[in-house]
Amino acid sequence: MSRTKEPFEPIQPGKVSIYSCGPTAHARMDMGECRRFIFADLLSRYLDFRGYSVTHIMNITDMDDKTINGSEKAGLSLSEFTEKHIDYFKKDLADLNIKPAAEYPKTSEHIEDMVLLAEKLVNKGFAYEKLRSLYFDISRFSDYGRLSGIDLNKIKIGATVDLDEYEKDNPRDFTLFKRSRLSELKRGIYVKTDWGNVRPSWHIQCAAMSMKYLGEFFDIHTSSRALVFPHHENEIAIAQSLTGKPLAKYWIHCDQVLINNKNINDKENRLTLEKLYDLGFSGREIRYWLFSSHYRKPINFSVERLEYAKHSLKRLDICINSLMNLKDELSYPELDQLIYDIKHGVVTAMDDDLNISAALASIFNIIKQINILILKKMLGKDDASKIIDAFRNIDSVLGIFNFGDEISNPEILRLIEERNKARAEKNWDLADNIRKQLISLGVTVKDQKMNISA
RNA sequence: GGCGGCAUAGCCAAGUGGUAAGGCAGCGGUCUGCAAAACCGCUAUUCACCAGUUCGAAUCUGGUUGCCGCCUCCA
Predict the structure, then answer these.
(1) Through-space separation of residue A351 CA and nucleotide B71 C1' in angstroms
(2) Is the CB of A146 under 7 A from strand B?
(3) Cα A440–Cα A445–Cα A449 angle in degrees, nearest 5
(4) CA/C1' separation A236–B17 (Å)
(5) CB distance A340 to A387 below 8 Å
(6) Is the CB of A140 under 7 A from strand B?
(7) Given this chain, do its domains A15-277 and A302-398 carry the same CATH topology?
(8) Domain spans of chain A?
(9) How far is the CA of A255 from the C1' of B69 (A)?
């Protein structure tokens, strides 16, 4: 809330409660959403790593303009439509190696909570009904704008909204419940309340669900900067006018994903996960790309940048693989220091506002050291397994390492065997041919010691 | 118009008062049957621009320019 970097102190010692703005179940996730979820994942994994008991809640919006319109177009019931997208969402999270949150509450299953919350607001005089919609009376909440730094008197009213459609007392007021349209009523998309047949606004959804699962004042609310105003301001307004507290102690926002320095919102250019998969990138590569620059800075998309991510991961993989293939019975005298550096470098960096670039730089430094030690034949089998354990440990935060299994595909093993034989016979043409085949199978061929890595 | 953010090499990107991390690409070398991988060396007198504060500034202050986001029913 201070709009500056400050040390983290949980409300309850040892425990952290996190609420993240989740997806709207109407389409395959786009890169902005991906980044938001990967960021929330990194944060909760890191706090967990640092010994906190983390409760992470992420909502799923399954009743709003987008889902209602989408389902109508698709000729499905609202729940059929949203379930389909929720399935995609869960699958995509797994592909991106995002640890599941404790709960994914859905709007459609928490309408009662929202109604109760709104009733309290009405009783306290913070909300009013007008023509069967319920609005929040912003003039009653003097703290409005603290998070985003906006001044309500200076904003351009109606810049993005057609005010003629609404009947607010003050155009700055925001909607809590919106009266359902006739088409929605016909499809049963409404809830009967004292104010009318309505459906909840986005703002009251998040406020009600976060408070239900995490209490009226919790530790961290994460999301993307694009949602600070008005959404988060509105959540705060709802919570604080009832509890006196601004919903969450810390509000952490990641920045957006851009293309050519532009935020492309239109449907044509929506950059979805699916598109990147089609371009041949994996969830792991997308994860690395999206979290490898600081969360508070915008990221530009390009195929080239994803290629860089791929390359960086390959460097990690090759090093890990070389470690796994060490056979010597050696013992490196300064192993403890090396192991300490692996963890310490990451922790020091991440403790400072999740400085992932510094954390990755420290890892690449270590990789280089390890490569040198391997080259000089100073590391043994046992050393290697201890180093790998240390990497596994930090990977519980990063989720990017590949501790791939030994090569198990019999076809690949056969080709390697055959190529080694050809090499022994100095049959270079055959050896080179097989190498081509192996590479096309995604195998990295490293000679010299005749190591092979997948 | 208001509010907020950003600007560091060919590219990506750390660094918020002590003399420019890391990755990619490039060049030269070692290794190799040739490659790949790995390693060694080189690659920003300089941090958008202009003033100022300071022994010292990419870092602080003021100004300028450029770019981006948001402006309350898209979530």
Answers:
(1) 34
(2) no
(3) 165
(4) 38
(5) no
(6) no
(7) no
(8) 15-277, 302-398, 410-453
(9) 9
Q: Which residues contact A344 (CB under 8 A, 6 or more apart)?
A: none
DSSP codes of every residue in A23-67: -BTTSS-BHHHHHHHHHHHHHHHHHHHTT-EEEEEE-BB-SSHHH
ipTM: 0.87
Q: How far apart are CA A393 and CA A389, in angstroms?
A: 6
Q: Rounded to whole angstroms, how far apart are CA atoms A215 and A40? A: 19
Give the closest nucleotide to A419 (alpha carbon vs C1'). Answer: B33
Does nucleic acid strand B have an atom less than 7 angstroms from the CB of A132? no
What is the tens place of the pLDDT at every residue in A83-107? 999 999 999 999 999 999 999 999 9
| A46 token code pair | 């890191």
Length of chain A: 454
pTM score, whole prediction:
0.90
What is the per-residue pLDDT across A128-153, written as a single tens digit (0 to 9) for each? 998 888 999 888 888 887 787 777 66
CA A253 distance to own-chain centroid: 11
Fold of the domain built from segment(s) A302-398: Four Helix Bundle (Hemerythrin (Met), subunit A) (1.20.120)
